[in-house]
Design goal:
Beta-Lactamase, Arc Repressor Mutant, subunit A, 35% helix, 2 domains, 357 residues, single chain, alpha+beta, globular
């Protein structure tokens, strides 16, 4: 009986390695079937801190639509209070359908309103609401209102408050007196700096370079509105020198015929001029040849008390500018009421203690 020889083959050492040591095989099916990773929790935001918009959240179309809506609102002016869809389309460079959609969105939010019988659009009540919020929270206007009412009551003339904004006189307040009534408001209007007493006050304490940059054309000329308007930078600089020496500015028929004005500066706690207060009215009522000193004293006194409310500390005047005689004062009141309240008491709603100023 023959014996069969069998050869035993040993597996290589690598073959005896445990399965756990081998690299696991991955496939497309195993990847897709794997459970999704847990989302990373966002860091808590601080209270009152708005989240920044991600660039992907705001598209160019959104910005363009917002810009167009603002452009539509800016089309409404005193000269153009009513606009049609076609007017809006032409002025902002869009189609009639786009202009109609923009106006419809603004109307839905109350920013414009449509007159249904004519199809014209005008600014809506929402604009008045926002304007009221802005005015009620203006620090300068709030500090000036009491003094403005006092001047209107005592003199019967108009009283205005303005600041320098975007190279123009910007009106923050306007009160009309019995001797200077208006059928419109100056609130929010912009007037040229060189043709108003308010503007001259706002320019007088600035450098010559600043003044020229704010008012002058490239050729150095200034826009003339009447024959009395200052026409050149050199002439304006001479006027501003006189304003600094006197402490107030005057204007007579430089912007519009039949109007005159006296203005004084309002300062903040650092002494910088941040606004101007003026007394204005018809030329006959203001009567600058006879009442300039009186009205300048009244405007300067009111402006000083407004400045005190804004934090400006000023040494008391030993001698105030002399007031005009009672014979030349207007029949509605004498400016001395501003300084002698015991002799001419004001109404309760206007009266205030000087100690609280």
């Amino acid at each position: 009986m023959s014996r069969t020889n069998t050869t035993v083959h040993k597996p290589p050492a690598a073959a005896n390695a445990p399965r756990a040591a081998r690299a696991p095989k991955t496939s497309a099916s195993s990847v897709t079937s794997a459970a999704p990773a847990a989302p990373v929790a966002e860091a808590p935001r601080r209270p009152g801190r708005p989240r920044r918009a991600h660039p992907a959240d705001v598209t160019d179309g959104t910005y363009q639509s917002a810009d167009r809506m603002l452009a539509v609102l800016e089309l409404f002016t005193d000269e153009r209070p009513w606009l049609r869809v076609g007017d809006v389309a032409v002025r902002i460079g869009v189609s009639d359908s786009t202009a109609s959609r923009l106006l419809a969105r603004l109307e839905a939010r109350g920013f414009v309103e449509r007159q249904h019988d004519t199809g014209f659009y005008a600014l809506g009540p929402r604009v008045l609401t926002l304007a009221g919020v802005a005015m009620n929270h203006s620090e300068i206007r709030r500090a000036a209102l009491q003094e403005m009412h006092r001047l209107v009551y005592a003199l019967g003339l108009g009283v205005n408050l303005a600041v320098l904004r975007d190279g123009a006189v910007f009106y923050l307040g306007n009160l009309d007196g019995r001797r200077a009534p208006r059928h419109y408001t100056l609130l929010g209007r912009r007037y040229p700096l060189h043709a108003t007493a308010l503007g001259k006050v706002l320019l007088a304490w600035r450098s010559a370079e600043e003044v020229e940059a704010l008012v002058a054309a490239p050729d150095g000329r200034l826009t003339r509105y009447t024959a009395n308007t200052v026409g050149g930078v050199r002439q304006l600089q001479a006027c501003l020198d006189a304003v600094r020496q006197r402490g107030y500015a005057t204007e007579c028929e430089e912007l519009a015929m039949g109007r005159a004005c006296v203005a004084a500066p309002v300062r903040n706690r650092r002494g910088a001029i941040v606004a101007a207060l003026s007394i204005s009215g018809p030329v006959r009522a203001v009567n600058l040849p006879h009442r300039e000193t009186e009205l300048a004293a009244a405007a300067a006194d009111a402006a000083m008390h407004i400045s005190e409310r804004l934090g400006f500390v000023m040494a008391p005047l030993a001698v105030r500018p002399p007031l005009a005689a009672a014979a030349t004062a207007p029949p509605v009141g004498d400016a001395t009421e501003l300084f002698h309240e015991d002799e001419a008491p004001l109404p309760d709603w206007l009266a205030g203690s000087r100690e609280n100023r």
